[in-house]
Amino acid sequence: MPEPVAHLARTVAANRKDHATIGALTPSRWLFPGGQPGRPISTTQLTQRLNRLGLRPNQARSTALFQLATEIPAAILARTLGIHTDVAVAWQRLSAGDWATYAAEISQRARPT
Questions:
Q1: Residues 6 or more apart whose Cβ sits within 8 Å of residue 90
Q2: φ and ψ at residue 83, rounded to 5 degrees
Q3: 3-class SS string, 48-113
Q4: What is the pLDDT of residues 22-74, one digit of tens each?
Q5: Partner residues linked to 40 by β-bridges
Q6: Residues 6+ away with beta carbon under 8 Å from 80
Q7: 98-113 b/e (C-beta count within 10 Å ≥ 16 → b)
Q8: Is pLDDT of 1 > 80?
Q9: Is the peptide bond before 73 cis (omega within 30 degrees of 0)?
Q10: What integer pLDDT is reported at residue 97 of this predicted model?
Q11: How far is residue 12's CA from residue 98's CA, in Å, rounded to a whole number?
């Protein structure tokens, strides 16, 4: 992670005091450990925590997906994010990204020497 986010992540990991760390034999590899040992916090729980802080992660996620859909083909977006191809295609259509000629454009590019 780039600084200053890396510093914040190390601080959070070093100062955990929630129930997920009680009785743990080894430190959790998760930045936000969940209630089950060895598992991360659930999406629902993390969203609730962020909402209590006034942060709306769903809005940011939608914005990020929308931006990605304008920059990469739907098939790559789906594979990279682990979402269904139909969902990636829908995001691409909403963002007005046109990737119909992507493969042809790539094949026409000059290869680096």
A1: none
A2: -110, 165
A3: HHHHHCCCCHHHHHHHHHHHHHHHCCHHHHHHHHCCCHHHHHHHHHHHCCCCCCHHHHHHHCCCCC
A4: 556 676 778 888 877 778 889 899 989 889 999 888 888 888 888 888 888 88
A5: 33
A6: 72
A7: ebeeeeeeeeeeeeee
A8: no
A9: no
A10: 61
A11: 41
pLDDT tens by residue, 70-105: 888 889 989 988 889 998 888 888 877 665 666 666
The structure tokens listed for 20 are: 């997920």
91, 67 contact by CB (below 8 A): no
DSSP string across 28-55: -SSSSB-SSTT-BPPHHHHHHHHHHTT-
How many residues are recorded in the chain? 113
* Residue reference for tokens 């930045």: 31
Any idea of the CA torsion for 78, 2, 25, 43, to the nearest 10 degrees? -40
The residue among 53, 52, 51, 49 whose CA lies nearest residue 31 is: 49
The CA R_g of the chain, rounded to the nearest whole Å, is 20
The residue to which tokens 């962020």 are assigned: 50
Q: Which amino acid is at 6?
A: A
| Residue 40, phi then psi, degrees to nearest 5 | -80, 170
